[in-house]
Amino acid sequence: MTNRENIRLCGGTFFTLLLEDRKPRAGVREHYAGEKDGLSEPEVLIGLSKVLVPDFREPLESMMTTIKGNTSEYKSCKNKGGTYFPFSNRVALTEFDKCVKENYQVALNRMIEFCDEFLHVKDSTKKDERLVKALIDTIDKDDSIESNQIFYALQDGTGMSKADIVKSQSFCFQTFLLGILHFCVMRTDPATIGKETFDFWCPPRNRAPRTYEGTMGEDWKKDVKLTYAEEIGAELKDSEIVEIVEPDQEQTYEEQQSDVERQSTKEAPQMNFTFNVTGNNNSFYNHVDTVNNYYGGKKDGK
Fold it and tell me: Is residue 28 within 8 Å of 213, Cβ to Cβ?
């Protein structure tokens, strides 16, 4: 593969580069002791899925073999993550696209949480800078991306073109990743568009796990200066949650109504007061029982 030939930025190649900025894994001793570090490739991809769908369902332990296979196929650009991950779910993608374009801070909050949990951010390794350079280099070398292609990578939610990205030196780390993720998942090309890139970066090693051997960004001609976004307006996130479920997991109408009734019939909180009254010309109360005052003057919500 030549310097530019068939380098493609897509979901799988983005995920491959992202893993190079992953926090340190637990050692062999910890793994033998049964300790989990929460940084396996499936767990990172589940975390990335939650940037799209914040209430994305955690898999059951019995599903993990399938999830590992889906993760491997997504990373190697064989497909878009199978039926479990949301990267080919039309409803999930539509809502994510709408959130990025109309309520950017909500989507950014999710990306900030993902970065804090899984990636090196603002530390001495400067792996975050290396990741940004690798992504810029990939965008530059992907000749299937037009120079005027917009990435929603600025902190105010506005876009910057491929040409702007290649020329720039200053980036906000989390907004840049959000813009790249949005481009990758909204790209309509088949997942296999990145397979040749993945094979070049991560060559087969018989049956051993394939590791990244690429050099993207290492010779990038410009220094990169990063700033970092802070999570704000966290209370907005819950109002934006849209649950995406497969057809066989949808609630029946009766189950939905039952959920609504349970929420609407929660018992109002009870307030307890104890009074001791004394004074001239007043009756004396050695003891007054607890007075129960229910909101709205109603008892037991009736």
Answer: no
